[in-house]
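tmp note - Class A beta-lactamase-related serine hydrolase
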Amino acid sequence: MTDRTRTVAATTSLVVVLAGGTLTGRTEGGADDRPAPTPVTVECETSPAADVTTAEGWIGYLAEHPDTVALALDDGTGGTLGHRADEQHPLASAVKVVHLAAYARAVADGDLDPAEPVPLADWERWYLPGTDGDAHPRALERLGVSDPASPARPGVTVRLDDMVSAMIRESDNAVPDYLRDRLGDEALRQAAARGGWDGFEPPTMLGTTIAMFDPALDDRDAVWEAARRYATDPAYREQILQTPVAGDVFTRMDRIQRFGNTGSAVQLAALHRSVAEGSFGAGADLARAHLEWQQAAPPGFEGLGFKGGSLPGILTDAFAFRRADGTVATAVILTAGMAPEEYAEATASYAHQQLLVAATTDPDVRERIRCAL
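out:
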């Protein structure tokens, strides 16, 4: 298969941008000297011009697109902001935090061994080349796995925990389906529920992508069966590999969304918070270590956990900021329906992440957002 056969835009959101200076405002100090929250009153002014390449411009973007954006912000000390926070919204790869939580719980229960050597072939049975923004090849490069053309490749194994790291760091799309197939749907539902996310129904990254090629797939069960067939039926796999994507993928995102990869900003924030503060229970430490892999946090915080995602026109991010005193701030933004040029600029700059950090640490910024919405 060549790039001429299949091109689907990147499905990942990889880098947390913590550069400051874009928005002015207060930054919280350490936990011991942090004053009690006080009411903040900001005179609402005209929002800045929409510009997804700057944090300031994102306030303008929110003002212009209130019906396609969801927000859930909580500074952990009483300051909150919600906008369409309980409404179901496409999640893209941000949903993988559920698979991580289920994996971590299975390890804690002794059902999975993070050091288990998994044949690379078992991982790649769930991989559809050319549809993940090169997340899988970049993960293999980081892990030092042999070149695809190497004769040694058929015997290569990868530690299970390293596979999971690829799901979070590079946002590999094959790992969540591998985990779903191995753990079962109920394990995913229970993990989500332990984190405060009730009613979770597992999606399939592979199956919804196959649905882009096969219009006959028309419901949640059908796309999961297609994914499992791709993983086990070489003839069907070859058929999909040789099928091009027709038309503009930006106009076909509704087809992906109908198969269930949705959730609310509140649900996503609840699971991140439970992992960060430990209320998730057994497995929280392992899940938190994966989410905090970048080991970077704004001033006043000890840890920053993160998982985001993107699909054409869809941009999602969820953060958990952990303080030394045990309090946790969370910030979630879910955006859909972005125009192609705006989406391209947003995924090149990740300026919305700077806005989330500022809104979490500065009540004045939260009030500016509240005014805009």
